[in-house]
């Protein structure tokens, strides 16, 4: 492939034939379940499955399969395994590390037609559903019943809960509800040889040996296809408040976070960071008016969720009075209604889209100890100023460096917004960013995973021993290596 000059197609994998396609069409019983680029030119229809959200990675799949049941997934994988056909599991294709699209001609197994809720218990809050249910659909279903899906992120309208599991997505409220590793109670998954792993437990507690489902959580589709999930969901809070605050320094952001934990404690449900550059970029890309009049170097979005509106407002007001009085926060606004809540959140959630709006984006999703977290953004800007790649005019590939993220989880999103993808920019960033993070004993991926983007760099966050153990697991579950090949493992 020209797209990936440094990766070679693995010759162990068979190329698809018309006969293979015939088998799949018969199995799935209909044209709508198959996008067939073997027997006809289907490039336009295949594009959405081959190209990722950032338009940075592009595969050459000529076949997309959309199974409707776990049994169909099992038969597909068994056939692929028996015939050495490589497979790329795919959910909503919103992944940000190139893991969700093929590299060469892997068959895309897309879960979008497995979209049924299986059960919900309104006493325990345990929700069981097919992997292909869209996150927002799941959350709306739960909202009608007074519950909330314990994960929320900007891509909720297209990502699937199976994809969320496969990436161990973190999102906007991890500080309140915890990770998928903690909330998932059970999984149903299919191994490459067709074995159905039937671990769809609805038990909160279950200490009966190895917790094997954890391997699929954050496994990024490298050992099997997740087909069903069981998850514990908390009550939806009737009282939600959102404040958007301006601050003069990163020191003050840290003080505000400390105060928020202290004073808002059990009702704090999000503490997000945005720098001025990220808000300017959002403003420029969308034309939206920013919430505050003057510009501050930093902004925080604070959300509270609780059961008593008066109680929560009282707490939030006391917090705001204190942080403004102590000059930790210099300016701020509290949403007065649902529309305002949405528009404040849009300033945070809209950064992803804005970051690539002017051409493209290099995204780094990092865990860094809080005191050091923002230094990376500052040093990254200096780095680009020195090497002459960033500037105001079209001559420069880099438009801006923006920093934002899940402050409450020590998770920084460093985004380098570019006018065009450019090897020189990539070279300036990698491994520079990873070295920086390793020096702080951080993680090169807090939440997006490794995929293809960080395949070469896992060693910055994992020891030789850990990588070896991962490879052993991969070999055990997927001895022929057909699951999401060429990616991190
Ligand atoms: P895909 O993108 O289709 O796939 C992602 C990976 O999972 C691939 O490796 C794929 O092979 C594998 N996979 C998908 N489905 C399955 C399955 N059923 N079985 C096995 N493997 C599977 N991520 C965060 O963590 N936090 C955020 O705050 C966040 N915000 C985002 C905001 C925007 C605007 C966008 C575009 C992305 C954001 N992401 C975030 C990244 C992305 O949305 C998540 O990684 C999401 O969980 C991916 O789900 P998906 O269904 O789109 O999976
Ligand atoms: C987010 O939190 O907005 C996403 O994880 C970050 C991104 O788009 O890089
Ligand atoms: Zn994020």
Explained architecture:
With 489 residues, this protein is an alpha+beta fold. The chain folds into 4 domains: 18-110, Uridine Diphospho-n-acetylenolpyruvylglucosamine Reductase, domain 2 (2-Layer Sandwich), CATH 3.30.43; 117-232, Uridine Diphospho-n-acetylenolpyruvylglucosamine Reductase, domain 3 (2-Layer Sandwich), CATH 3.30.465; 239-351, Alpha-Beta Plaits (2-Layer Sandwich), CATH 3.30.70; 358-449, Alpha-Beta Plaits (2-Layer Sandwich), CATH 3.30.70.2740. The chain is built from 17 helices and 16 strands. A hairpin with a 4-residue loop joins strand 5 (117-121) and strand 6 (126-130). Helix 9 (250-264) runs antiparallel to helix 11. Belongs to the FAD-binding oxidoreductase/transferase type 4 family. It comes from Polychaeton citri CBS 116435. One of its GO terms (molecular function) is (R)-2-hydroxyglutarate dehydrogenase activity.
């Amino acid at each position: 492939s020209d797209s990936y000059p440094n990766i070679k197609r693995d010759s162990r994998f068979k190329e698809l034939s018309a006969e293979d396609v015939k088998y799949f069409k018969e199995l799935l019983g209909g044209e709508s379940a198959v996008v067939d680029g073997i027997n006809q030119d289907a490039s336009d229809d295949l594009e959405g499955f081959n190209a990722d959200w950032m338009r940075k990675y592009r595969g050459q799949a000529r076949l997309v399969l959309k199974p409707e049941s776990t049994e169909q997934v099992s038969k597909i994988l068994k056939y692929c395994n028996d015939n050495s056909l490589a497979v790329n599991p795919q959910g909503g294709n919103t992944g940000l590390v190139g893991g969700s699209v093929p590299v060469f001609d892997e068959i895309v197994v897309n879960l979008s037609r497995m979209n049924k809720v299986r059960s919900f218990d309104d006493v325990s809050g345990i929700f069981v559903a097919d992997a292909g249910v869209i996150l927002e659909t799941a959350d709306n279903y739960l909202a009608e019943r007074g519950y909330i899906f314990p994960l929320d992120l900007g891509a909720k309208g297209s990502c699937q809960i199976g994809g969320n599991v496969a990436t161990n997505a973190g999102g906007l409220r991890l500080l309140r509800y915890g990770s998928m590793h903690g909330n998932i109670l059970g999984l149903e998954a299919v191994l490459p040889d067709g074995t159905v792993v039937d671990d769809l437990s609805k038990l909160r507690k279950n200490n009966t040996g190895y917790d094997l489902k954890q391997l699929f959580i954050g496994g990024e589709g490298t050992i099997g296809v997740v087909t069903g999930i069981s998850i514990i969901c908390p009550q939806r809070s009737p009282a939600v408040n959102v404040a958007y605050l301006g601050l003069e320094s990163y020191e003050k952001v840290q003080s505000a976070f400390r105060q928020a934990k202290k004073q808002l404690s059990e009702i704090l449900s999000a503490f997000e960071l945005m720098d001025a550059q990220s808000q300017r970029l959002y403003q420029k890309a969308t034309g939206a008016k920013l919430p505050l009049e003057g510009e501050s170097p930093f902004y925080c979005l604070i959300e509270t969720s609780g059961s008593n509106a008066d109680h929560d407002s009282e707490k939030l007001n006391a917090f705001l009075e204190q942080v403004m009085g102590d000059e930790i926060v210099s300016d701020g606004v509290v949403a007065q209604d649902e529309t305002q809540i949405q528009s404040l959140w849009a300033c945070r959630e809209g950064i992803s889209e804005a970051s690539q709006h002017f051409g493209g984006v290099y995204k780094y999703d990092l865990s860094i100890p809080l005191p050091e977290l923002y230094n990376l953004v500052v040093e990254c800007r200096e780095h680009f100023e020195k090497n002459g790649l960033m500037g105001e005019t079209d001559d420069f590939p880099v438009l801006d460096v923006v920093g934002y993220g899940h402050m409450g989880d020590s998770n920084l999103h460093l985004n380098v917004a570019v006018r065009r993808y450019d090897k020189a920019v990539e070279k300036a960033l990698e491994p520079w960013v990873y070295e920086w993070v390793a020096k702080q004993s951080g993680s090169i991926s807090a939440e997006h995973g490794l995929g293809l983007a960080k395949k070469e760099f896992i060693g910055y966050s994992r020891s030789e021993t850990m990588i070896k153990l991962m490879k052993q697991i991969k070999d055990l579950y997927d001895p022929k290596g057909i699951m999401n090949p060429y990616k991190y493992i």
